[in-house]
Amino acid sequence: MIPRDMTAHPAMSQRALSPTEQTFFVADEICSLNFVMHCELAGELDEAALRNALGKVQARHPLLRMRLEGDAGSLWFRPGAEAIPLRLIDAPPAAVAPEAERELHTRFDGARGPLIRCVWIRHASGHGTLLTTFHHLIGDGISGALLLRNLMQALDGAELESLPLADSMDSHVPATAKGIRGYAGMISVGLQTLAKNLRRGPFRVLPVERPASFDQRRAAIRLLRFAPEVVSRLSDRARQEGTTLHGALGAAILLACYPELGHASAHIAFSSAVNMREQFSPPVGDVVGMYASLAFSPHLVDGGTELWLLAREIKRGLDAAFAAGQPFHGLTCIAPWLMYRHRQAGGGDAGRETVAKVISRGMLKAFGLTNIGKVQLTTEAGPLRVESLGFVVSLSVLGDCAFTAATTNGILCLNSIVMEPVVSRATQDRIVERLQGIVLAAAG
């Protein structure tokens, strides 16, 4: 339980968590929902300069200064968090993945705050990797990129303007996706999914290798990197084929996972994390916060499925999901329903167990890709230079297999996450090896 302190704070410096944010908090209590940005840097970086720059970034974004008060279901963001913690270690590049896994499952002290921390891994003189760990309550992949953009600006001596505390994404949902219309849209999508399942069979997922409750699961990650020339060729080919780089990567992921499913023809759900900042009314600017949702599309994959055909299907599926308002359904329907069930169960352990059961029985099982695209940031701050940028996330209750993608300086970081022991590292290794070969072959 987080201690309550109902002392009044200045207007606009605090707010209650929205239903979606409350749901994220409960999901994190069940199984960690952290995510970690990994940013490789070249050039000398002084510890004092890094701490000073982190202080400037924290002063710019209010959610980085927040702590939590209250109980699950009635939480508030309150100001007064401590400075962003920074841990320094000396280790080779091979230590990045194990450190990121450790960070994914190291919980935050919400009562003290902040819900963010950093690890500076010094590989050698003039070479290191900065890990920035977020609680998903206060950020998404785009937020991580925005923070690193501001951090590079601060390291270059820029002063950063302070931003006001932003509303949750629930507050930005357009009227067309609220109330009865929102529920009607979700029911329509559900009926369409049911009809396809009756024709094609149930959605196939990776076999459970070892059953485990949510609180026993841990994220295992593999970090992949593709050179700029490969990414350029793949992007050009995707345009020629009438699709996108996201569609091509999604198709490669499904084809790499397909041999593990054990079915000659597999009905697979593919989920894309969607940046909602420009979709909301009014739009959300460049603020740190959780402003992402999911869009799903169903696909039939067999041994003869051609990559570019599947890539075009994924693009069309994502376009259709947007047209149907699907990314808003989790905000307007699913999150409030989960918190209602949490309250009905009396909160606490019983509430968490109820939410876990509802999710495990009703959550659409999908292979996911969160692609934040080309990250626009100043890649140099004096002698310091960004070499690459990527991220990983603990999937918590949201699935057992997912991927993340980010492109900086033309370098694509494509990362794999599976939840052990439900899916083993051996299975992950096979999928990643196939994925790498498929991507390189598609790029030509």
Radius of gyration: 21 Å
Q: How many E strands?
A: 15
Mean pLDDT: 88
Q: Which percent range describes the beta-strand content?
A: 25-35%
SSE order, one letter for each helix or strand: EHEHEEEHEEHHEHHEEHHHEEEEEH
CATH-defined architecture of the largest domain: 2-Layer Sandwich
Number of domains: 2
CATH topology of the largest domain: Chloramphenicol Acetyltransferase
Helix content percent band: 25-40%
CATH superfamily heading of the largest domain: Nonribosomal peptide synthetase, condensation domain
* Quaternary organisation: single chain
Which class of secondary structure composition applies to the elements?
Answer: alpha+beta
Number of helices: 11
Description:
It is a single chain. The protein is α+β, with helices and mostly antiparallel strands. It has 2 domains: 15-155, 2-Layer Sandwich (Chloramphenicol Acetyltransferase), CATH 3.30.559.10; 176-376 and 391-443, Chloramphenicol Acetyltransferase, CATH 3.30.559.30. It has 11 helices and 15 strands. The strands form 3 sheets. Strands 5-6-7-2-13-12 form a 6-stranded mixed sheet, sandwiched between helices. A hairpin with a 6-residue loop joins strand 3 and strand 4 (76-79). The longest helix has 22 residues, at 179-200. The protein is globular, with a radius of gyration of 21 Å. The termini are far apart. Residues 1-11 have low confidence and may be disordered.
Provide a quick synopsis of the model:
This protein has eleven helices and 15 strands. The chain has 444 residues and is α+β, with helices and mostly antiparallel strands. It folds into two domains: 141 residues, Chloramphenicol Acetyltransferase; 254 residues, Nonribosomal peptide synthetase, condensation domain (Chloramphenicol Acetyltransferase), CATH 3.30.559.
